[in-house]
Structures are given as structure tokens and as C-alpha cells.
Write a structure and sequence with these properties.
By secondary structure, this protein is an alpha/beta fold. The chain is about 35% helix and about 15% strand. The strands form five sheets. It has a three-stranded parallel β-sheet with strand order 1-2-3. A three-stranded antiparallel β-sheet has the order 4-5-8. A hairpin with a 3-residue loop joins β6 (about 145-150) and β7. α1 packs across α9 (about 265-270) and α6 crosses α7.
């Protein structure tokens, strides 16, 4: 099952990121499959180009290799534009505050877009543009229900609202780009952190709407800090700048129940079905 890892260059990879990358590599290589890398750099407000090289160096430092060139999303906007042209979309002028207020007034689910702009007429659209508002583009999903089977966490079902596929600043949304790129890179199994589980129904809806292959999914348990929250910068820089690569690999292996000193050692004994299903705490 061809796999991938797709970091965003917004900072140095911490041990939680690296552990997920290691798992994605193990899933692919243990199946005798290709493993590809992609740089997800569409969020220009947060991306810092110098982190790209540092992230790739860190992945190599823990023993990971990959096939073919590293893809860069900012170089693939024509592909996202072509995909967007094939989707049923409409303009949305709502702010986040307006969406929260509308959902609350209708007692709707938190985070679900209530369809406010779906029925806007030409005059209403013109009025919003005159106010200086720039529209985002949303797909017409119509509260579709999407079910899927996750290799590690079982069966899930989610409601897909009319979500944004192009932001009001012109940037393509993560969900659209990742679906287009996974199909183009031949990714057959997406291994990623459990914090991204909720985005899967939207991505499957897009794959079906675009007629693209649907990858399998495996959402792996996260690494938590001592406070029980997802490992992040607030816990200090738990990166290869503070932890030697050999020590980081040893810790990652132990947290996964794998013996050995290198990623290749882990590969010889890797069994996805034997992976722990609960988050791991890094105490430092």
C-alpha cells in the first residue's frame, strides 16, 4: 500500500511528528510499497521556507527514506484549480463569528456551516462585495453522511457540511489539496495522527465528487505532553535539537513495542495490528 508523509513547514518537527512519520514509513515499507513525501505549504501566513530543509534532514536522521522527488503544494495550484472547476461550489461571505452565531441560533452542530450564503441573490452578493467582503468558495455537500473504516480505530461516520475549498484570500483549502495530491502521487493508504480523523469524511466526499481513488486510512495515536495534551511547542522544543536522533528513535520504538536501534530494525518486526491504540506520553 503506497504511503506518504506530508508535513507543513511551519516549524521544526517534534517527536510526535517524527513518530507519526516513522509509522507511515513502517506501514508502507512493511507492505513492500513506495513511500513519498510532500511539503504542504499553502498556508503562507504560517509557512517558513527554511523549515523545509530542516524537516527533510530530520526525517533522514531517524532513518527514513522516500521514493521520487518531494512534491511541493505551492507548485501545484493549477491542479487544484482544475479540480475546483469540477466541483459544485458557491460563494460564501460569512465570517467565522457569523457562522457561530447562525449555528447557535439554529441549535445546529458546532462547526457545521448552516448554509447561510447558499441562497443569496445577485443583489445580496453585490451588497456584500460593496462592503469590501471577499468570498470563499464552499462545496454543495448538503449534509451528506460519509462512513469509512479506519484500520486502527474501526468504523466511523461523519456529516459533511458545505465546507470551504478555497479561502477568501484565494488560497486553496487543505482538504482539497490533500485529496488531489494523494491521488496524483498514487497514495493508497494515509497514515496520520488521530487529530486528523475528523477531516476524513470531507476528504472522502471530495474524492468521490472528483471521481478519484479513495485511499485507506490508519489514524495513529498521538504523543502527549506531561499535561495530557497533544505534544506541541508549549511543552518545550522536544525536537532533534534537544534529543539525539539515536535516543529519539529508541524512544519511539519503545513507545510502539518495537525492539532495536534503527528504523530498519523495527521494520523486521512491524505488525500494524499489534500497535498500541492509546496515546503515548512523552515525559522528557
Amino acid at each position: 500500500m503506497n504511503g506518504r508523509y506530508a508535513p507543513s513547514p511551519t516549524g521544526v518537527l517534534h517527536l510526535g511528528n517524527l513518530r507519526t512519520a516513522l509509522l507511515a514509513w513502517l506501514f508502507a515499507r512493511s507492505a513492500g510499497s513506495r513511500f513519498v513525501l510532500r511539503v504542504e505549504d499553502l498556508d503562507t501566513g504560517r509557512v517558513r521556507p527554511h523549515f523545509v530543509g530542516e524537516q527533510l534532514d530530520d526525517l533522514a536522521a531517524i532513518g527514513l527514506d522516500w521514493d521520487g522527488p518531494v512534491w511541493v503544494q505551492s507548485e501545484r495550484t493549477a491542479a487544484y484549480e482544475a479540480a475546483l472547476a469540477r466541483l459544485p461550489v458557491y460563494e460564501c461571505f460569512c465570517t467565522r463569528a457569523e457562522i457561530r452565531e447562525a449555528a447557535s441560533a439554529a441549535h445546529g452542530p458546532v462547526g457545521i456551516y448552516p448554509g447561510t450564503c447558499l441562497g443569496l441573490g445577485a443583489a445580496e452578493r453585490a451588497a456584500r462585495i460593496a462592503e469590501g467582503r471577499r468570498p470563499a468558495l464552499r462545496v454543495r455537500a448538503g449534509a451528506a453522511r460519509v462512513a469509512f473504516e479506519d484500520r486502527l480505530t474501526g468504523r466511523h461516520e461523519g456529516v459533511v457540511d458545505d465546507f470551504v475549498v478555497r479561502r477568501n484570500d484565494g488560497a486553496f483549502a487543505y482538504n482539497l489539496a490533500v485529496v488531489v495530491d494523494d491521488a496524483a502521487q498514487g497514495v493508497e493508504e494515509v497514515v496520520r495522527g488521530a487529530d486528523l480523523l475528523d477531516s476524513t469524511p470531507r476528504q472522502l466526499w471530495l474524492a468521490r465528487a472528483l471521481g478519484l481513488p479513495e485511499p485507506a486510512y490508519a489514524h495513529v495515536p498521538l504523543v502527549l505532553g506531561p499535561d495530557g495534551r497533544r505534544l506541541a511547542k508549549r511543552h518545550g522544543d522536544v525536537t532533534l535539537r534537544e534529543v539525539a536522533p539515536a535516543d529519539a528513535v529508541a524512544w519511539m520504538g519503545a513507545s510502539l513495542g518495537l525492539r532495536g536501534a534503527t528504523a530498519s530494525d523495527f521494520l523486521e518486526q512491524f505488525d500494524p495490528d499489534a500497535l498500541p491504540r492509546e496515546p503515548t506520553t512523552f515525559a522528557g
